[in-house]
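Subject: for your reference before the review

Hello V.,

The reviewers asked for a structural picture of the protein, and I figured it would be easier to keep everything in one thread rather than splitting it across files. Below is the amino acid sequence we used in the manuscript, unchanged from the supplementary table.
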Amino acid sequence: MAEAMWYVVHTYSGYENKVKANIEKTIENNPHLAEQILEVRVPMQDVVEIKNGAKKTVPKKMFPGYVLLNMEMNDDTWYVVRNTRGVTGFVGPGSKPVPLTEAEMKPLGIKTDNVSIDFVEGDSIAVVAGVWKDTVGVVQKLDFGKQTATINVELFGRETPVEISFAEVRKL
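And here is what came back from the structure prediction:
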């Protein structure tokens, strides 16, 4: 079985969410595809807009006209995605899709390596690197998507939540 990698699919402009929904519907109707097409994503970012003097945070597509797919590339998955309504093709030379590299995925917030940690919510941890080095705190929340732990630290006499990367902490 091939390894699942991230691929970029080009769509008609404005059809990104429709393509995502169509691919997810196809996966739902064909259970064998669920093991091969693992995730469909339309990368979004929050942008602050000022209209009529009021600031408003709105989500915007990072790459209009593109959808990201975490999938095993084979003839079946290629055919399903390529023949989804709204898809114009995979990004790559000719009809050969090229997976994203680790460096290309990092700014998108997509982590490929799964980090195993030896602490859970409620455990005391010490920060061993970064700005909060030598700080001790209790884990309040774990975010495996961003690979961060939220701990409370005392700052100016108050408990303040701080997000720390898994790589920068160790269990006490």
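For the response letter, the relevant points are probably these. The longest strand covers residues 44-51. The longest helix spans residues 16-29.

Happy to draft the paragraph if you're swamped.

O.
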